[in-house]
Amino acid sequence: MNRRNLPRRRVKAAPPAGPAELDAIERLRFESLLTDRITGLKVHPLADFHNERIATLGVVYLQLGRFSGVESLYGWELYDRVLRLTTDSLRADLDTSPLKSRLLSLQFNGADGFYLLFDLPARANGGKNGARLEDETRRFRDGTVKRLRQSLGRTAVDLMSVHATCIKVPDDPRVRPSRHILRGLQEAARLLGARETQEKQELLSEFRAVMTGRKLRAVFQPVMDIRRKSVMGYEALIRGPLGSELETPDVLFAAARETGLELELENLCLETIFAHLPPAVKAAKLFVNASSRFLAHSVFLDDRNLANIKRAHAQVVMEISEKEGIWDYPTFREVLARLRSSGLQIAIDDAGSGYSGLESILQMRPEYIKVANSIVHSLHRETIKREIITALASLGRQIESNIVAEGIEHPDELRSLLKLGVNYGQGYLLGRPSPRVSH
Questions:
Q1: Using CA atoms, how far apart are residues 105 and 117, in angstroms rounded to an integer?
Q2: d(Cα 101, Cα 387) in Å, to the nearest integer?
Q3: Do residue 166 and residue 245 come from a single domain?
Q4: Which of 164, 169, 78 is nearest to 119 (CA)?
Q5: DSSP-assigned states of every residue in 176-206
Q6: How far apart are CA 89 and CA 164, in angstroms?
Q7: Which helix (H) or strand (E) is 232 found in, with range?
Q8: What is the pTM (predicted TM-score) of this model?
Q9: 244: phi > 0 → left, psi -120 to 50 → alpha, else beta; which?
Q10: Residues 78 and 189 grouped into a single domain
Q11: Residue 33 has what pLDDT?
Q12: Which residue has the higher pLDDT, 377 or 174?
């Protein structure tokens, strides 16, 4: 189910009420039910309006997410950051907008969309104001994309696929003002939804062509022993056709979910990775991403398949992503035992991110615990992140698991990790993914 159909219920806590304050507090509580806790914006389309008529209503609608929603792809922590950044971006661009004085309301739809409502002048300058509304819509959208990319990176934002549209809705005296506003909001959402659906179908068609033509590429990022400053292994990463929207793995797998081809894509990824392993990669450990669902599939667990993997590379570490969740740990531990008996090791990906919790680590006892980028980022400035890594390192020692810090991009992050006793890491500071690898 699409997240945008499920309003997020972030209700602010109202203060305790005395008898004399009851009416005022009830109003406050009602207002809080209309307010999104993360963005601070109203989530009811008529919350800022009464019965006033608007000669020409200008509606700008900005929508995040093209597939199953930002939150389901990246988790609630990143989703909340996206909402805050988008709100801040829209407010910043509104401050310098020629339409600022015409703003009626900035609202959040409770899922992945934002509305900006303007009271535009009547017909005298209708054409001019219509063009200005279109210009400002592009500026709001471009500003949001720019700020999100600066904070989150290009890949995450491209997957979100930020879209925006605008319409003008002339007043109709036969319709109540509230109905007039609702019509404008509904029409803007309909127009953007139609455009998004068309683009989505085109992308899914391109994805099917990628699968049929086996047009994937493998790149390899070094996993470093950060104390010895030497390569311990490589993580194999998948890319789609160079320069296409499907180049990034997040978009590839989002398209696979939409078409029901997740397992087929994972299988093609493994075939692509093992088809041409550089000599330097064969001489070190090889980390390969896979879902728990794929690892438990009978085709992957087939003795011939496991033997082929062992022949292709003697030191494979299966890196498990838990975005879909593991519901039956006893059964999955049997799968892990089968993999280990075949010479494979296990890593848990994104530890500390919300997907890979302590229960998963204790249940699976992986040989490697990979700390999520979001925890490593700016850990030298955030005590809580250092405490999380310290706790993971302590747990790792108790169950004989090695800690690998992902997403190291700044020397201060590296220095902090060394102080915390972390021995292994990867990230752009240490080496970028590349199809060509040398010692």
A1: 5
A2: 47
A3: no
A4: 169
A5: -HHHHHHHHHHHHHHHHHHHHHHHHHHHHHH
A6: 14
A7: strand 230-239
A8: 0.71
A9: beta
A10: yes
A11: 43
A12: 377
115 token code pair? 């509305």
Q: For position 75, what pLDDT does the model report?
A: 63
Alpha-carbon gap, residue 16 to 37, rounded angstroms = 19
Q: Are both 150 and 239 inside the same structural domain?
A: no
Return the CATH number at 332: 3.20.20.450
211 assigned to some structural domain:
no
Query: Does residue 438 belong to any structural domain of this protein?
Result: no
Beta strand 230-239 with 217-225 is antiparallel
**What are 45-62's pLDDT values in tens digits?**
565 665 666 778 888 888
Domain boundary among 175, 203, 231: 203
Q: What band does 175 get if pLDDT is binned at 50, 70 and 90? A: low
Instruction: Please count the structural domains in the chain.
Output: 2
Distance CA 178, CA 50 (A): 8
Strand partners, 393: none
Angle in degrees, 0-180, between the axes of helices 262-275 and 177-213, rounded to the nearest 10: 40
Handedness of CA 255, 200, 248, 38 (dihedral sign): negative
CA distances to 73, 170, 267, 305 from 253, in Å: 10, 43, 12, 23
Residue 218's closest CA among 272, 280, 290? 272
Q: Rounded CA gap, 86 and 80, in Å?
A: 10
Cα four-point dihedral sign 427, 428, 430, 432: positive
